[in-house]
Design brief:
By secondary structure, this protein is α+β, with helices and mostly antiparallel strands. Helix content is 31%, strand content 20%. It contains 26 helices and 38 strands. The protein has a five-stranded mixed sheet with strand order 2-1-6-14-15, with helices on one face. The chain has a five-stranded antiparallel sheet with strand order 8-7-19-18-17, with helices on both faces. It has a four-stranded antiparallel sheet with strand order 28-27-30-31, with no helix packed on it.
């Protein structure tokens, strides 16, 4: 028991020993844990680094050496005969150096600020990296950066310039690899050949130390740079866009210069701190006047053909980008999101030593530029509007090759290529390709088809409605499609576009002809066919589209770059024709023939070309004019069987209108270019006519409907003969002509009221329109009622020229007001040579009057109706034979819609008319006006007489208050024998003469306290 107790007793140890044991165990496990964590962390870091660089290729020595020695190589552009246009221009200026060209002061400045341990490290400077971190954390004045020169070179040659962990890790690995294969001299030289130094005095971006010395200080030998200048240059690569003493135009940049000088002082300080310059050199460098040593600003030196060079560079870069990414389309290249890609492609082109071969004919290009730069061909420069501009494209439509281009008037005034980069509203030139051509192709119309040039009321989001007008503010009525195009009428084109072809189908057709500038909102543009587009079209694309017409419906997309080769002559791009048959040869011929009569036809909008084009009659031409509102743009699209030439003219801002002479500018420039080209390149023009394909025949149709003539059509002589696509000759016979009676009101024909007298009706052959004018006028009247009064136009403005031939569909809107109308006023007679008189009068004030009758009394005989009754809508004028030796008296009556006739108007007299006595019988001398106390009143006016079965009512206009009339005397004569009797007096302005003898002649006088007036004009009451 005691033994067991001894064995179970605890062993006693000292406290220090226990503490030591516990500490040992704790430290041991901490070490184990640390190793474990280290292994985990190391694995994680290794995995992270591996993930960052897993897609980065391991570049062999040959690639690194090739990339280091690679610099921009000059490229060239050529005409189509392979003569030189010029050297590919770049915004860069780069001059290559070797290590032997570098003086010590440049090396010391660069290494002092960028990589002081460059000669010691193997691509990565741990000390430098730590120092950079410390400077950044403590916000020290001197910031040297953590990347070595090798890392910066690796980044510039192989990597992007972003600041991600991925790029940094790749940069380190590349730097280590480059240090294995390249010497320090090679690395430093490559760095100073490749880094940017901002803009030089000519505006170019400077790359490389030698170009920087020349562009900033005008020093070509680097040994002539002093320490201050070397430090200035060494500081620029950190932020070249900010540290620049010059702008992109070569102008001095004060703000950039001050920033660069601040950076220079940092470089000098770092050179001194690292022992690369002495205190004296440091002090002298600080006092040197850098500003005074800067190069003088100078303009960029452009080539002989700056417009063409820029266009060749742009198009070649687009081609190379689309080759690199086949998913991109031409219209995508102008989008903002692709701007960086385009710049990268252009940079690659300009630096890669490429040779760009164009389709441009040197002779044609030069003569087009000469015409465009000749001030005599244009309106003088305007301080308000600027320079009148012009743009043109000439292409071989059989291939799509652009032979000539006129990009603008003056490159130094405006660098924009107006021919390819500008979009403007096409005006009437769009009618051809979006209205008539697709309609012909669809079999909807032919040249002899009849279209109504009458108004249409279109919906308008702003005003509620819109009523388009023709340029001349008139409407021609029923016209053929050929005539509508010749005269460039808007309404027929709008109707075909909106109602027949439909907008969606028209735009699909236009897109097949190479128009890429249409916008989604254009799908709702009802006036797009006359130029109401979102952004418009370019000269190149519109000319391109027209080229398919003389090319028999085959579209070849216009191109200017035929091929591109690299620096070694290897073809990297070659244009391949991809012709598309957009419409038939028959449609092409019909459209061509219609465009021919735009020039040769009566009233054709391009008819002046017959005298302006020297070879007219020798070389066949066709074309279409176009203009926009207020002549902000004018166009002429014209072609021969071999070439298509499109011309635009206007100002930089579309709001500025062309001068009166400028309105014809596009057509005139077209003629000038064609005159020169046909003289210079006669071999281009070998065809004497446009080919007529099979299936085209002549046919005669109704000029009222475009349908086959009926017997009535032939009797009316309403026939038109023209070319047809044989399959589209109409099969239906004309049913639009009808002979009927109608009445005209406000210029519109209506069905007559059954009670209207026949004498006021017309009867003839009229035409049943698709929309009768009576219905159309109601629609326009309703639309105008919604406008403020100041914005309304007279309804007569909207009547087409042939309104009198319209078959009515509605009854005469004039309703009987229940009373006879008042007689017309202002009856006048005017004698003419040859024994005739002209009778004129004014309308009756009644709204329901349909016409007027004229009555005549010869030598005091009874009054009888003479001449034809005059409709209320016609002239209030009639001509009669009248002898001055006889008594001729006339009056006029108004007749209303149900036949009620007004009282006679006042009588108009001519010839040997008996004189009404100045003093009526029995009045003594009361008409004297010799009283000293005043004057007699004036004679009454406005005398009228209304007769019924038992009496006659005589009325007149009351005298003015100033006449102080006390009463009126009424005189009567049964016959016109000069003997009148006073039958009564009244203080009112009317008098009733009771029967039975009420017919006869009346006049009235007015009386005041002085005396009696002379007689009023007489009236006859029958």
């Amino acid at each position: 028991m005691q033994e067991e107790e001894r064995q179970l007793s605890p062993i006693k140890r000292s406290k220090w020993r226990t503490f030591g044991l516990i500490s040992f165990i704790t430290i041991k496990w901490m070490v184990y844990f640390g190793i474990f964590i280290g292994l985990l962390a190391g694995g994680a870091v290794t995995g992270y680094v591996a993930a960052l660089v897993k897609d980065e290729e391991v570049r062999p020595r040959t690639v690194i050496e090739e990339k280091v020695s690679e610099n921009a190589i000059t490229g060239f552009v050529y005409f189509n005969d392979e003569t030189l246009v010029g050297q590919l221009r770049t915004s860069e200026d780069r001059m290559i150096i070797t290590y032997e060209d570098l003086p010590p002061q440049v090396i010391n400045a660069v290494l002092g600020i960028e990589d002081n341990n460059f000669l010691e490290h193997n691509g990565v400077d741990i000390n430098g990296l730590g120092r950079a971190v410390k400077q950044k954390l403590l916000n020290e004045d001197t910031q040297t950066g953590g990347s070595t020169l090798t890392q910066q070179l690796a980044r510039r040659m192989f990597l992007s310039l972003d600041k991600t962990d991925s790029r940094k890790i790749k940069e380190i690995f590349l730097s280590l690899r480059m240090e294995r294969y390249l010497t320090k001299e090679e690395i430093l030289t490559a760095y100073l050949n490749k880094v940017p130094f901002g803009n030089g005095s000519s505006g170019y971006n400077l790359f490389g130390i030698k170009a920087a010395a020349k562009g900033i200080f005008n020093i070509t030998d680097l040994n002539k740079l002093n320490i201050s200048q070397s430090a200035y240059l060494a500081g620029l690569p950190q932020r070249p866009s900010a540290y620049t003493a010059f702008t992109g135009k070569g102008q001095f940049n004060e703000q950039g210069f001050e920033l660069a000088m601040g950076r220079q002082k940092t470089v000098l300080k770092r050179m001194f701190e690292t022992g690369r310059i002495t205190q004296q050199e440091y002090d002298e460098a600080l006092t040197f006047d850098i500003r005074q040593s800067l190069a003088e600003p100078s303009e960029k030196a452009y080539t002989t053909y700056p417009y063409l060079m820029l266009e060749a560079e742009r198009q070649a870069a687009e081609i190379m980008l689309m080759q690199q990414d086949p998913t991109l389309k031409k219209e995508d290249l102008t989008k903002k999101e692709n701007a960086a890609l385009m710049e990268e492609a252009r940079d690659h082109l300009l630096r890669g030593g490429y040779h760009v071969y164009t389709t441009i004919d040197k002779d044609i290009y030069k003569l087009m530029r000469e015409i465009g730069s000749n001030e005599k061909n244009f309106t003088p420069y305007s301080e308000e509007k600027g320079l009148e501009q012009v743009a043109a494209i000439m292409l071989d439509h059989k291939t799509g090759a652009i032979l000539g281009m006129l990009e603008g008037r003056d490159f130094y005034e405006e660098q924009l290529n107006y021919a390819t980069q500008m979009t403007r509203q096409p005006g009437s030139t769009m009618k051809t390709i979006a209205s008539y051509l697709p309609a012909i192709e669809m079999g909807i119309i032919q040249p002899a088809s009849i279209i109504d040039d009458a108004p249409i009321v279109m919906k308008d989001g702003e005003k509620g409605f819109h009523i388009p007008m023709n340029v001349n503010r008139k409407f021609a009525g029923l016209v053929t499609a050929r005539d509508a195009l010749n005269r460039s009428l808007n309404l027929p084109a709008l109707k075909v576009f909106n109602e027949e072809v439909k907008i969606e189908n028209a735009w699909e057709f236009v897109k097949k002809l190479g128009i890429t500038t249409l916008q989604p909102e254009d799908a709702y543009s009802q006036t797009g066919v006359i130029g109401g587009l979102s952004i418009g079209v370019s000269v190149e694309e519109l000319t391109n589209a027209y080229g398919a017409i003389p090319n028999k419906g085959e579209f070849n997309d216009a191109f200017m770059i035929s091929r591109i080769t690299d620096a070694n002559g290897k073809i990297v791009y070659e244009h391949k024709m991809e012709p598309k048959q957009v419409f038939s040869e028959q449609s092409a011929f019909l459209m061509t023939d219609m465009l021919t009569t735009v020039i040769t036809g009566k009233g054709g909008s391009g008819s002046k070309l017959m005298s302006e084009f020297d070879k007219f009659g020798e070389i066949p031409i066709a074309g279409k004019t176009g203009s926009t509102q207020s002549y902000g743009d004018v166009w002429f699209m014209g072609f021969t069987p071999e070439v298509t030439l499109g011309v635009w003219s206007g100002y930089e801002e579309q709001i500025n209108s062309l001068s009166e002479a400028g309105k014809a500018r596009a057509r005139q420039i077209w003629a000038l270019i064609m005159n020169k080209v046909t003289d210079t390149k006669p071999e281009l023009f070998t065809t004497d006519s446009f080919d007529r394909p099979s299936g085209i025949v002549k046919a005669t149709v109704s000029s009222a409907s475009g349908l086959l003539p009926s017997q009535l059509t032939k009797e009316a002589g309403m026939l038109v003969t023209d070319w047809f696509n044989q399959k589209d000759i109409p099969k239906k016979t004309d049913d639009t002509l009808v002979k009927m009676a109608y009445i005209t009101y406000e210029g519109v024909n209506y069905l007559p009221n059954s009670a209207t007298p026949q004498e006021f009706l017309k009867e003839k052959i009229v035409i049943k329109r698709k929309k009768p004018l009576d219905a159309l006028m109601d629609e326009i009247r309703e639309a105008q009622a919604k406008l403020p009064a100041s914005s309304r136009r007279p309804m007569g403005v909207y009547l087409p020229a042939d309104a009198d031939n319209n078959a009515p569909s509605k009854e005469d809107p004039r309703a009987d007001d229940g009373s006879p109308p008042p007689p017309p006023a202002n009856i006048r007679l005017q004698a003419e040579a040859g024994g005739s008189v002209i009778l004129t009068f004014s309308n009756s004030t009644a709204k329901d009057v349909v016409g007027y009758r004229i009555y005549k009394s010869l030598n005091q005989g009874n009054y009888q109706k003479v001449g034809e009754s005059l409709p209320s809508d016609g002239e209030k004028r009639a001509k009669f034979y009248a002898s001055s030796s006889q008594s001729n008296r006339y009056y006029v009556t108004a007749v209303d819609v149900v036949g009620k006739e007004s009282a006679p108007s006042r009588i108009a007299e001519y010839g040997n008319v008996p004189i009404i006595p100045e003093l009526p019988v029995g009045n003594g001398d009361t008409n004297s006006n010799n009283s000293e106390t005043g004057t007699v009143p004036s004679a009454p006016s406005g005398l009228q007489g209304i007769k019924n079965e038992q009496s006659v009512l005589i009325s007149w206009s009351p005298n003015s208050v100033s006449d102080q009339v006390t009463e009126y005397h009424v005189y009567y004569s049964e016959t016109n024998n000069g003997q009148y009797t006073r039958i009564g007096s009244t203080s009112e302005s009317s008098f009733v003469n009771p029967g039975p003898l009420v017919s006869g002649i009346y006049y009235v006088t007015s009386v005041n306290t002085v005396g009696e007036s002379g007689p009023s004009s007489s009236i006859i009451v029958e």
